C-alpha cells in the first residue's frame, strides 16, 4: 500500500528522514501567518491513495502549532481513511491530571481534538507520563528515544560515567539509559512548588560521584530550572563534567545559557524539537512503530 508522509512546519527534517526510511512519497506544507496570528496552511501536492502519515510536533508556540497539526490531519483525512499522526513532542502533556482543584486536564481536550480531526492512530515520543496515554480516543503508541540517546553517549569518551535522574519521576528512564550504556545510576530527590514552580534539590550529599563524569537524563527541558538546580548540587559534590541527555529540548528563556553557566558541559537531545542540541535522530524508532 502506498504511503505518503506530510510534514508539518515544525517537523520538516524529521519527516523527510521518516519518508526516506518508509520509502514513502514526501509532501511539505506551506505556512503563512497573517498579522492577526491566524495560520493558512497549504499542502504542496495531493497525497497518493493509501496510508497518510502526518508528522507534526506541537512545541512552542504550542497553540499555533496544535492548530496547524489539526488542520493537516483534517486535510489528510480527505485523501485517506488511514491517517497516522506522529506527534514527536506533545504539547500540554504535563497537564495530564488535575493536580490542584479546578485545573483542566488539557491533554484530554487535545486527545479529543485529534480524534475529531481524523487521526486513526497516534504515535508519540517519550510522552511526559504514560498516564497521559489514557486520554487518547484512538490507538496510541509511545516510543522512546532513550536507547538512541544512550547509543550516542557510548561513542563519547567519559570518565567513570554515572547516570543521574533529576527526580524520582525519571528513575526508570535513567535506569534504562544506564543499562544500555553499561553503568550505574542515582536518583535525586526534587521538590517543586505546584503554585510557584520553584524547584529544590533535597537529596543528601552523595559520596560516590567525586571526579566522575555525569549524565543527567530527562524527558524534556523547558526553562532548565531542574537541570540548573541539579547541576549546582552535583558540582558542589566535586563531580567531573556534567552532560545532559534529553528527548525534547525546548530551551525556553535562555535555558541553554543558564545551564551552561551552572556548569553543564554539553547538552544532547533528539530531533523531536529541532535545534542546536538535537543530535539524535528518532526517525528509525518511529518507522518501526509504523
Helix content: 25-40%
How is the biggest beta sheet arranged? 7 strands, mixed
Report the CATH C-level class of the largest domain: Alpha Beta
| CATH topology descriptor of the largest domain | Rossmann fold
Shape: globular
The whole-number mean of residue pLDDT values reads 93
- The tally of domains stands at 2
**Amino- and carboxy-terminal Cα gap:** 13 Å
Strand content: 25-35%
Following the backbone from N to C, one meets helices and strands in this order, namely EHEEEHEHEEHEHEEEEHEHEEH
Largest sheet strand order? 3-2-1-4-5-6-7
Rg (CA only): 20 Å
Structural class: alpha/beta
Total number of strands: 15
**Low-confidence runs:** none
The helix tally amounts to: 8
CATH architecture of the largest domain: 3-Layer(aba) Sandwich
Describe the structure.
The chain folds into two domains: 150 residues, Rossmann fold (3-Layer(aba) Sandwich); 126 residues, 3-Layer(aba) Sandwich (Rossmann fold), CATH 3.40.50. It is built from eight helices and 15 strands. The longest helix is centred in the N-terminal third of the chain and has 16 residues. The chain is globular. The relative contact order is 0.13.
Q: What is the strand and helix layout of this fold?
A:
Elements: E1 3-7, H1 12-22, E2 25-33, E3 39-43, E4 51-55, H2 62-77, E5 83-87, H3 106-117, E6 121-125, E7 140-143, H4 146-154, E8 162-165, H5 171-181, E9 185-187, E10 190-192, E11 199-201, E12 214-221, H6 225-236, E13 242-249, H7 255-262, E14 264-270, E15 278-280, H8 283-289
Parallel strand pairs: 1-2, 1-4, 4-5, 5-6, 6-7, 8-9, 8-12, 12-13, 13-14, 14-15
Antiparallel strand pairs: 2-3, 10-11
Helix pairs in contact: 1-8, 4-5, 6-7
Amino acid at each position: 500500500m502506498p504511503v505518503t508522509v506530510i510534514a508539518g512546519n515544525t517537523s520538516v527534517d524529521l519527516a523527510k528522514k521518516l519518508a526516506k526510511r518508509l520509502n514513502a512519497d514526501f509532501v511539505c506544507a506551506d505556512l503563512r501567518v497573517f498579522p492577526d496570528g491566524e495560520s493558512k496552511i497549504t499542502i504542496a501536492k495531493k497525497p497518493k491513495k493509501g496510508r497518510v502519515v502526518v508528522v507534526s510536533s506541537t512545541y512552542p508556540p504550542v497553540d499555533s502549532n496544535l492548530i496547524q497539526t489539526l488542520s493537516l490531519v483534517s486535510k489528510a483525512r480527505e485523501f485517506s481513511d488511514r491517517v497516522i499522526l506522529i506527534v514527536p513532542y506533545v504539547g500540554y502533556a504535563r497537564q495530564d491530571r488535575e493536580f490542584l482543584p479546578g485545573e483542566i486536564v488539557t491533554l484530554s481536550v487535545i486527545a479529543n481534538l485529534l480524534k475529531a480531526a481524523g487521526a486513526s492512530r497516534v504515535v508519540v515520543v517519550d510522552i511526559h507520563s504514560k498516564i497521559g496515554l489514557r486520554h487518547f480516543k484512538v490507538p496510541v503508541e509511545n516510543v522512546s528515544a532513550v536507547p538512541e540517546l544512550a547509543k550516542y553517549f557510548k561513542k563519547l569518551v567519559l570518565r567513570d560515567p554515572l547516570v543521574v535522574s533529576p527526580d524520582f519521576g525519571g528513575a526508570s528512564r535513567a535506569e534504562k539509559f544506564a543499562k544500555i550504556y553499561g553503568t550505574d545510576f542515582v536518583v535525586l530527590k526534587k521538590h517543586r512548588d505546584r503554585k510557584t514552580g520553584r524547584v529544590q534539590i533535597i537529596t543528601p550529599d552523595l559520596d560516590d560521584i567525586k571526579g566522575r563524569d555525569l549524565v543527567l537524563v530527562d524527558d524534556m527541558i523547558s526553562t532548565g530550572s531542574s537541570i540548573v538546580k541539579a547541576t549546582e548540587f552535583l558540582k558542589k559534590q566535586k563531580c567531573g563534567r556534567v552532560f545532559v541527555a534529553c528527548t525534547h529540548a525546548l530551551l525556553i528563556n535562555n535555558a541553554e545559557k543558564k545551564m551552561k553557566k551552572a556548569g553543564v558541559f554539553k547538552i544532547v537531545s533528539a530531533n523531536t524539537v529541532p535545534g542546536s542540541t538535537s543530535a539524535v535522530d528518532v526517525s528509525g524508532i518511529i518507522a518501526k512503530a509504523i
